């Protein structure tokens, strides 16, 4: 799967970095397209919905897993 890659996102007008494996970045882009959102907008939505004690990268991975499973 490879090592996580860090990329910058803008959430609520603030820049932040998130480290995800390439497979998650690919599915994140696919999910954003399917939801009619930019990657930043989708990650903002995930950020708003997550438990404050859950790391953003973990919340994104879990959201993507649930999204992928719901499509099958």
From TrEMBL:
Residues 4-67 form the Ribbon-helix-helix domain. Pfam families: RHH_4 (PF13467). It comes from Rubellimicrobium thermophilum DSM 16684. Gene3D superfamilies: protein bp1543 (1.10.3990.20). This is Ribbon-helix-helix domain protein. InterPro entries: RHH_dom, RHH_sf.
